[in-house]
Fold these 2 entries.
Entry 1:
Amino acid sequence: MNFGIALHGGAGTILKKEMTLDKEKEYLFGLEAALSRGEKILSKGGSAIEAVTETVVELENNSLFNAGKGSVFNHLGKHEMDASIMNGKDLNAGAVCCVEQFKNPIILAKLVMEKSEHVMLTGNGAMEFGEKMNCEKVEESYFFDQLRYDQWQSIKDSDHFQLDHSINNPKKFGTVGAVALDQHGNLAAATSTGGMTNKKFGRIGDSSIIGAGNYANNNTCAVSCTGSGEYFIRNVTAYDVSCLMEMGGLDLKEASDKVIHERIKKIGGDGGLIAIDKNGHIEMPFNTEGMYRGCWSSKGIKKIEIY
Amino acid sequence: MNFGIALHGGAGTILKKEMTLDKEKEYLFGLEAALSRGEKILSKGGSAIEAVTETVVELENNSLFNAGKGSVFNHLGKHEMDASIMNGKDLNAGAVCCVEQFKNPIILAKLVMEKSEHVMLTGNGAMEFGEKMNCEKVEESYFFDQLRYDQWQSIKDSDHFQLDHSINNPKKFGTVGAVALDQHGNLAAATSTGGMTNKKFGRIGDSSIIGAGNYANNNTCAVSCTGSGEYFIRNVTAYDVSCLMEMGGLDLKEASDKVIHERIKKIGGDGGLIAIDKNGHIEMPFNTEGMYRGCWSSKGIKKIEIY
């Protein structure tokens, strides 16, 4: 029985010529740390749900990635985060959107899945639920980052927003995610984001929408997306990969390539996804210059890549 | 070229023996009025988007249905509404959730689709956007209904919530929706809801989620769902019908029956959906005792039914 895990830290205009060697090392180190955390859980016989949760927690705790600690500033100078998780075994799912001050939104999404009768909770209601569940909260200052603050300042009085930003990446889709297959044959997917810089109007992207940015089904695959969220919602992208396998008879590579290089491109969307099927096969296609990504499988495969 | 429209006003435990003749007449009259409004638009060559919007507006303005004016009370004694709309021509879509005091949430969702760069807006942000767009607001009292108030009072201090309520319907899924095909071959779908009585935690159901409760694609069909929302999200129900047609080779009847009588039932979900395909064929399956529904097509078909 194969098992394995894949993760991403966002996709977009990531060019090697604009990356310093030190910065590159930091990213690779961050991805490696998160991957190892998931790999260890799976190797010990732990569940796919546990592996994707802990992997995403590691990425959320790393300020390099736009999720959790590294979340960008919204229009009000706050950090508004979305996350979702799905269990391929029973199609159970949980999601939160527009939550503030929770250290790990993915844990809050998991609590929604496991401890509520609902799938998706938003805003104050979601936060009230999180407090009731004693989900860990932190001060607003925990999320402060000088670089992200400066970039927000530069556009905060405009109507502009950015999908993510760092010095070299004017167009980087800031999302993190993980997908896994465990030794028991169960698939799971988890996705988390800090949204868009200067984001207004309580915008919800694909990351917290089951079917759009995140999906898992033991009969087919587990998928986590990163990209221009609005297009990923309109194409119901994560579920699209699963349907192309289940109903279209495609394999994971054919399905995920078709979704990223044909179907999402056709309406103008860009980004990428990571996916693992029930046999432990992993795909990580993207139609942008780069995607922070990595994977490990019991077949002896390990990759950490950016471009 | 055929064209037509279908609508629903919710599904659930609707039993003829518990319905008075007067009440039944009111429901049939309300459905008929909404259907006529859409039919007129289509007959004059108007767009499917216009037809589904105006049909849903008519249902939102009728206090019998749980959407707009007839919205139930949430845990805080307020009326928190969700709506979504999708254009099958270009896969453009708009959705709002947890909005208060907007007379017609479907119009707000349409504004999100047409006037914003986003697909889905929630809570205060969505309302700020609506005010900026001069979308019509009304006093909280506009939504007051003694029956709905009394039922909320009876459970408001508990942790219980109800999907909808009226004297005879302890289990009625309160949603309204419309799907249409216009003379130009364009499909559209619109869905709106007032949520669940005593709803807490900013719960988002399937009605405002593209792919789950609402979907339209000129290549396949337009779908609007009503039912136990959490199950409809987990099964990505509206898009499921489209995928079974596009990738599975089923026709509209086979696809919508499979989704309602097999796929959603398998995980414990109940409810129904209305759907129209690119040839003007209409299906309205449900797995509950009844569904308020109606349809009209240029082929000379007109139906208004409850059980």
Entry 2:
Amino acid sequence: MNVGFIGLGLMGRPLALHLAAAGHTLHLWARRPASLEPFKDVAAHAHTSAAEVARHSEVVITMVADAPDVRDVTLGDDGIAAGAKKGLIVVDMSTINPNAAREIGAALAAKGIEFLDAPVSGGQVGAINATLTIMVGGKPEVFEKVKPLFEKMGKSITLIGGSGAGQVAKACNQILTGVGILAVAEAFALAEKSGVDPARVREALLGGFAYSRILENHGQRMLDRNFKPGFKAWMHQKDLRIVMEEAHRMGLMLPSSAATAQLFNALVGSGLGEDDSIASLKLLEKLGGIE
Amino acid sequence: MNVGFIGLGLMGRPLALHLAAAGHTLHLWARRPASLEPFKDVAAHAHTSAAEVARHSEVVITMVADAPDVRDVTLGDDGIAAGAKKGLIVVDMSTINPNAAREIGAALAAKGIEFLDAPVSGGQVGAINATLTIMVGGKPEVFEKVKPLFEKMGKSITLIGGSGAGQVAKACNQILTGVGILAVAEAFALAEKSGVDPARVREALLGGFAYSRILENHGQRMLDRNFKPGFKAWMHQKDLRIVMEEAHRMGLMLPSSAATAQLFNALVGSGLGEDDSIASLKLLEKLGGIE
């Protein structure tokens, strides 16, 4: 299949290479020529615009930073829509606001272009190992057409619902992981400040209802003082911004998400944004006077 | 062994019966004579005061509501300390403030009485099946003496640290479960308000880092609209009060716990206190105008 891929960063590059390895022909466009380097030895054509990519592709995948970038690359000047043949499928794998995804989907539909929102979780390791969780919103028949591509990039692939539903599921994921990491950090800070070994607390609690993959994995990394990302705090901050934007738009009270979003603001503000999200423990320790 | 047991409620009764079944002789005192009924057919002596219970016991276990009750039954008029032989071990299995536990332990130590704080998690079902998680604070040599009794009541038994450390671990557990339940409720409310099926979101997220026993079990009960306790919201509210008391006493910022404690205040205030903690979903739905 001729597959366009736009956004060849830490996540996009390994995903595009999986598709090439599976025998697909890639059509690429990148702002920085260096991004095309890793594709020298595979079936890949470099183009001069997103519109040119679209002109040669049946499916175009985008994996960029945020909603304005997706809007730009799909609907902007020389964007995908400008070069699309009728029936083109655009798959956005970026994490953006669900409502923005719905609006972009609707604008593309008006031009006869199909759209799926398909954000992922599992990070760079999941992208490299093709073990991502992919959460998809869109039409079932479009999902079925793209599924063989998803299967080269991820392990758990779910059509959640209509347009935007993939982004909603991703927002839910970021609530559970963001709040979950902060809750573990708070429990550990309480133990430390009380003179109790958080390692023994973690060990005792892993067997009960407090068990979570975050207590197990992120909790161990907190004990190891390994704050290397993983998933950077500023990216989690952005995803919690999306959650709070949606909560505000719809009139929904999300108290633990709101408190967590504020803590992530403070993480970025205090210079810990490039650390992993578990650096929330460091900040609580600092504010609690814990050595 | 002669074992005193004070506090024969939903949790205490099955635990005391496990000890009797293991061949121990119980010494009981209860405010309400009806509480002694289930012990008619086992080796159990009823006494007229906690002091009398202590006079006949090597170990006295207490399982009552809160710190003032523990203080009363241990150090009050006709309390355990008034009847204790030197070397008596008092084991408090109630959930109380860690600092209050340390103070009670110190007051008993001044009278030559040993003390362990040993709160539990696992609820009434765990008590009946003797599968509780028991988190213990106190001296290792005292812990070893009581361990055979703990093993008749629980499955996972951990000496966390010195006096109060069991209560600290329990406070950590209540952070992780309280915040964890609210985070799942918030994710589900966001999905519902967005017109997305929370069951599909849960299914997609169970395979990733968002996995928690709470997403699996409590999440399923939320989908089933089964708000029957389980663990009552007003009890979780009390345990989060303890967390916030300690945070305040020590000067520790715990943002997600604080937001969760507020939501639990609202649960009790709005008449949902007798429901399970997962009724937090009902409250978010109500406040978000979700039918």
